[in-house]
Amino acid sequence: MKIDSKTRFSIIVLISGWFILFGVIPLVLLVITSFLTMDPANLVRLSFSLKAYSQLLIDPSYIIVFIRSVKLALITTLLCLGLGYPFAWYTARMPPRWRTSVLVLLMIPFWTNSLVRTYAMRMVLGTQGILNKALLSLGFIHTPLRIMYTDYAVVAGLFYLMLPFMVLPLYATIEKLNFQLVEAARDLGAGAASAFIKVIFPLTLPGIMAGCVMVFVPTMGLFYVASLLGGARQLLVGNLIQQQFLNARNWPLGSATSIVLIIFMAVMLIGYGLLLRRFGRGKGISG
Amino acid sequence: MESVLSIGGLGKSFSGQQILQDFDLEVKASEFITLLGPSGCGKTTLLRIIAGFEKPDTGTILLDGKNLLSLPAEKRKLNTVFQSYALFPHLTVFNNVAFGLKIKKINGRELETRVNQALEQVKMNDFSARYPHQLSGGQQQRVAMARAIVNRPRILLLDEPLSALDARLRREMQLELKKLQRELGISFIFVTHDQEEALSMSDRILVMQEGRIAQLGTPRQVYEEPENLYVARFIGDINFFPGKISTVSDSGQVEVTIFGRQITAHTQRQFQPDDKVVLLLRPEDLRLYEHPPKEIKTFAGSIVERSYRGSTLDTLVRLDDGPLLTACEFFDEDDPDFDYSVGERVYVSWVKGWEVVLPDEN
Questions:
Q1: Is A50 helix (H, G, I), strand (E, B) or coil?
Q2: Do B151 and A189 touch (CB under 8 A)?
Q3: Which of B167, B176, B147 lies closest to B85, judged by CA?
Q4: Phi first, then psi: what are they for B149, rounded to 5°?
Q5: HSE-up of A96 (CA within 13 Å, CB side)?
């Protein structure tokens, strides 16, 4: 397709305009706000202050929330990896006409509003929910399990929302994998386990890393999953930010927390990029 | 000679299509045997069954007298050189070659010695620290060989290993492969669709046709005494003279009527008068004369095309009776300038007794 310079120019303007309006400007406002003084009546007062950042560093409850978020995000990521890898593997090894259907089945819920799906999880996990009713009628349990408002419910909800983000990058690398290499490994005496450890795992590592970053990073901020399934006690960093803005009306603190979260994510992404580049250059594997 | 691998009654079909049928083969110790056939004839499937990547529907395979089919690929004392080499991209040349030994828990000094020895055998010891993507096709090919032979397999399976190389490198690798096989004394089962490659390297050639053996024999047998028209057509260029048996004598001689002429032909096959037959002649067996010699029967025709090949002069001759022939003549010391012009009249005959008589299958 040939694009004339006028069209190209307008596309560039449109995209960079969108990016500046909804990306750069809000971020600059966020940074500025984080250095202002709290004023519950007027959102913020225009005087410089480092109080928000010092609060974050000094008050251990914020650090606890942060560690807790990392823990939940890590568990979610490992769950997604553990179940997503075999899923992606078998999908990539199916005959091509089946692959598309399976991927579409995975994607359909992905296109549905995630808030709606989180409410649906409440219906499944509740005391009167589908899961408990099924387990009761099958005789596995005699009293309903209390799943809602526990960490289990939060992790289940996060896992459900984030699974496609793990499966898609994994699928992309596994599909590109030369399966003759697996045959070569077996030919040289490797059983299934050592073929996986020595050949399949290192060759799909770029996909594993991409999937983990794509699950881990957004999970830290998914406040509504934690509030809907975990109740008020189960705080993620996302919940903290939401509460500062909407309930505590402490905009500088909310902004500062956001900035810290953004920096944390950025460091992770940069680290991922560096790892991938080093890995790719040294070993002849493209990401 | 003892047989290393015995295949009996092997059959395999994929989604209703028969790939191998009732296939038998004995592979002898230290033998270079080539599976030759067009794509889709089942040669790669056979190799994959021996390697353990496919399961046959019927039949048995014995390696040194022991059942091979009950073992998974990783437990078979065979190694494969893959068509696309299948080198591990994340491992260096050294670690690629060391892969099989490390799995067998061979470490330290012995590992190093054996890997270096294998790399030396394929002249790749200067490249042990490189990654596969830093090597040329021919070098990757050598590493793939080293990776297989370092495990000292009973049989080495090679799936069109030279097909990705350019013609010159291929010639070179053919000679090296043959030399390596003699040095190692391992049986090689070599799959190819290139008949020249098969002729130059093999101790025996197995020509395959739609999952069956069309002919099994030495390169000379397969080339000079094809057992059927399929083999004759597949190996080298060949000329056909259709005819009909007129008389049969006991001494391995038949009289054949070809385009109205009575020709005496030699054959060990049994024919009946009136059998339709084909006389087969290789291009280098034909003789062209500018004037019809009195003492021999010839077929008249005209030169359609001539091409100079350095050591030979190749010509296409259209017989007045219809068929188009290919002739290949060596330059003669007495007459280094001999040549034909297109349209020139020639008379075609052949060296007595070099013809092959086969029943006409059409």
A1: coil
A2: yes
A3: B147
A4: -75, -20
A5: 0
Non-local (6+) Cβ contacts of A201 within 8 A are A208
CB pair distance less than 8 Å for A202 and B147 = no
CATH superfamily of B239-359: Nucleic acid-binding proteins (2.40.50.140)
Q: Is A175 helix (H, G, I), strand (E, B) or coil?
A: helix
Q: Are the beta carbons of B74 and A189 separated by less than 8 Å?
A: yes
B88:A178 CB<8 A: no
pTM: 0.81
Residue B320 near residue B196 (C-beta atoms within 8 A): no
Q: List, for chain B, all residue ranges whose pLDDT scores fall below the cut of 70.
A: 1, 333, 336-337, 362
Q: Structural domain of residue A151, as residue ranges? A: 55-283
In A, residues 92-131, which contact B (CB 8 Å cutoff)?
A: none
Is the Cβ of A185 closer than 8 Å to some Cβ of chain B? yes
B3-234 against B239-359: fold identical: no
Report the residue of chain A nearest B146, measured CA to CA. Answer: A188
Residue A169 falls inside a structural domain: yes
* A 268-287 near B (Cβ less than 8 A): 282-285
pLDDT digits (tens, 9 = 90+) for B192-230: 998 889 999 999 999 999 999 999 999 999 998 999 999
Size of interface A-B (CB pairs under 8 A): 70
CA distance B207 to chain A (A): 26
Q: Is residue A44 part of a domain?
A: no
Count up the domains in chain A and report the number. 1
pLDDT of A165 reads 93
Q: Say if residue A142's pLDDT is above 50.
A: yes
User: Measured between alpha carbons, how far is A173 from A256 in angstroms, rounded to an integer?
Assistant: 37
Provide the CATH number for the domain around residue A129: 1.10.3720.10
- Residue A102 clears pLDDT 60, i.e. is over it: yes
Share of chain A above pLDDT 90, in %: 50
Residue A231, pLDDT score: 77
Tell whether A224 is covered by a domain: yes
CA–CA separation, B16 vs B14, rounded Å? Answer: 6
DSSP label at residue A200:
I
Q: Given the structure tokens 């940074």, which residue do they identify?
A: A31
Per-residue pLDDT tens over the stretch A121-137: 988 998 888 888 999 99
Looking at CA atoms only, how far is residue B114 from chain A in angstroms?
Answer: 15
The pLDDT value recorded for residue A233 is: 63
Residues of B in contact with A180 (CB under 8 A): 82, 84, 86
Tell me, what's the pLDDT at A190?
94
Is CATH 1.10.10.10 the classification given to domain B3-234? no
Q: What is the pLDDT of residue B216?
A: 95
Task: Kindly state whether residue A1 falls inside one of the protein's structural domains.
Answer: no
Residues 131-150 of A with CB under 8 A from B: none
**Interchain proximity B103–A283, CB inside 8 Å:** no
Give the domain ranges of chain B.
3-234, 239-359
Residue type, B282: R
